[in-house]
Amino acid sequence: YPRARDMIEAGLAVVLATDFNPGSSPTPSMPMVVSLACTQMKMSPAEAITAATINAAYSLGRGDKIGSLESGKLANFAVFDCEDYREIAYWFGISRTHSVYVRGECVFG
User: How far apart, in Å, are the Cα atoms of 97 and each of 21, 78, 90, 100?
Assistant: First the structure.
């Protein structure tokens, strides 16, 4: 696994993604990626979620439109069935997704 903790402590913006492909990364599961970041890469749940959202958006040159809930951005977000956001990283292999919104419209749930 990448040395994410060292990168964060060096001030780098870490990005998490599935890099979904049938060869070296055969998983489309972002919850799994977030879980691995917390359990194997020494990232906190907040760091992992930041890496999977706003940092990922900026890495794609889209941080001004997506990646966080702010006025003027596209309100793309998911709601999870859990008591605390920190639980998301530890429900490995189980979908806790309650609903998904794209541009403010519910598309799932």
Answer: 23, 7, 13, 8
